[in-house]
């Protein structure tokens, strides 16, 4: 409709205007929610209208404002950012439907503020996705942190306050304490902080400096939740579930790993990194996080906490992919951003649907709930299988490419790590579904039946799902997980240009 | 014909000076305030036009009374002094917009005339220091500014009697500082036979190795640092800022210490010359440790304050540490960072103190325990405070971020391991700022407001000026061509001119 550049700016402006509209319509909840939905649909259409151009290799650049004489706030659409923006904007529509169901179903207070902050957070996510240099990335990264703080502390009780402290403390602490110095250091070394294919540090930094810089970047980007700075993510789970679903399974954490990929690909450069070997330690830290977070997830009885640790583990896949510095592994990391988003948001939607329907948060209380909420639990199963990485679900591709990457790098141990991790995923995700369907509900017991005379536990009378707006979204995202399996080829074609130098 | 604009260099300081006695004669709530505001706005206008003409056609020299320097007093407007004039008169005018409703709550009506007279004198002093090109004249203006500020701070006594001891403490310490300065100027006059700054600077290389000059320089630097509240000579500042009337705190936070930073820059770079100051005298070794200790310890101390004004005052001392650090780096990049931060911090801190002023207007106290739940009682004011706080932390899109960027670039330019450690120290200090700001945010938003209080915003006459500063700070954090552009010009002017 417009020039590509206009669409890029619109990706920021649409959600911000939406936020204004939501605030104005504060008194009329139905209009307010309509504004949210319309905004999210518009944003999604807008983002996808950029896609064909990017597929054809066009990279539109827009200078928003000249922040300093030397560096401007600049947007540039490249394949990786395009992918991230497409995922986030399409999930925002589904999540908005879900938010309406969840917030109304649970009679949450201060809903206007909730939707406003949400829209601002999405705008910041778009900014992160389309950032053309480190400074722009950092600016929107911080806006994202600050705009999600009110969402995390939405309940305003002591627990929310504590969670908010950890959230802000770690995210602001790492970003100001490590990320920013790393950016400025890069600036003084290379004289630029633009994202350039092949990296900008080659020839400007010694191997030692590269190692230190990589450390600063990886731990400065706290949103990637590399251990031991992962604590903010479980802490953020005090937020209402729609926030956990879109922001802490998709937008915020993906902004983190997305930033990691961008830094590795466009600042260090894959080749430069593999030459210096500076990223070897990162591989092991990521591998450790991968396994350790999965083990911790096993011990969590609170469903959202278990999902949070699962997210930490799954994020480490992306970092692992980046750290191996081979093109296949990086492709796996990039695919993981997409695939995990749809899988994990399904799981969170289900967790919220369960909470809305029966107000249960602990896994041990969820026995037999599958008989009562079959749709929710089937969606959960599909999401879980996608995260585990079984075909025919989208998640299998990212694991496949990571395996290829590990093989390409001759890292037998890493292949074992990936294998063990998949087994752990099964161990902490599938029992939830199994208990839901096969165990009798809490406080009841099934009569012993002789072999061959089993009856179905399913009956229409027992069904008591959450409101439609809460059930529909996980079903949709679960279906998308299946569809994504068949979409791997176009996605790969989109991100291919960044892998070949 | 002599046009009015050729007299601008003198008018900028003369207007408030002449208006002050009239102001003291006025009675009532409105008249003294209106006159002060008009005069201040006039100075602002004059400052702006001076700055523009400096940009267009180079530094302006004005001979007071037609006596040619070095015999007569010379007023000089160069990029740095023009920039400072605009900053000071601008902040003053903005604060005065806020003053009308705020001050009537804190100062009895019959004292308002005197109050605004003292305000004008204080403004005269600050503007005069920046514009004069004469070392002794600087002392005169310094005393005008200081004496009137003692009075202004003491006028906070109706709210809290401790304002009197705070003013007295400032009086003692401030006088010591001014005396040090005067002694130093005397020694330099003895050696050079001149008081004109440009003249001293031109003769300085011949006598710079001598002992009296060494002593003189020492006296001047220490004197200025006392006035600047450089750690550990800062003790007067938290007290004065805490107990002074709110608009005075806002005004001084944006201007008074900045004037001292200006003096430090002026003497180090224009009079002594960077070569002598840093290579010869090794000022870096003196200023840098104090600056670092200052911003680290004062940020930490700010965390534990129970009074919001005091908290911000300690934060001011810490921020002054950043400015002095920029100077101590002895590089063009460092000086740029320092000048940028003078401007940025002035805008941010004034906005913050004004929002605290709004809170005081409604709540009647600035103690954190009385401000519980103020986020719900005064949503607009508190949101403004939170945004200002982000500027103090240095979150991107705020001016604090721009300052920090330039400061860290300047530090990294040094390269050595010491530089890296210094970056770490700067980051620690920013994180301490997160803590002290967030303490306030939590008290304001997460504690329930006291029983029986309702939502009651400050009147628009207070809110609008506050938000002008808050939004202005974001403007200067995003569109930086004014502050960064001038800082770069100033730095290259001062370094190149040496």
Proportion of residues in helical segments of chain A:
over 70%
Read across the widest sheet of chain B, the strand sequence of neighbours is 1-2
H/I helix tally of chain A: 18
Distance from N terminus to C terminus of chain A (CA atoms, Å) equals: 32 Å
- Derived from helix and strand composition plus strand pairing, the structural class of chain B reads mainly alpha
Question: What Rg of chain B, in angstroms, do the CA atoms define?
Answer: 22 Å
Written description of the protein model:
- The complex is a heterodimer of chains A (501) and B (498).
- Chain A has 501 residues and is mainly alpha-helical.
- Chain A has a domain at 279-445 and 458-501.
- Chain A contains 18 helices and 2 strands.
- A two-stranded antiparallel ribbon of chain A has the order 1-2.
- In chain A, a hairpin with a 7-residue loop joins strand 1 and strand 2.
- The mean pLDDT of chain A is 88.
- Chain B is mainly alpha-helical and 498 residues long.
- Chain B has a domain at 285-498.
- Helix content of chain B is 77%, strand content 2%.
- A two-stranded antiparallel sheet of chain B has the order 1-2.
- Chain A binds chain B through residues 65-69, 73, 135, 138-139, 142-143, 146, 153, 156, 161, 165, 168-169, 172-173, 176-178, 180-181, 184-185, 187-188, and chain B through 390, 393-397, 402, 404-405, 408-409, 412-413, 423-424, 427-428, 430-431, 434, 438, 442, 445-446, 478-481, 484-485, 488.
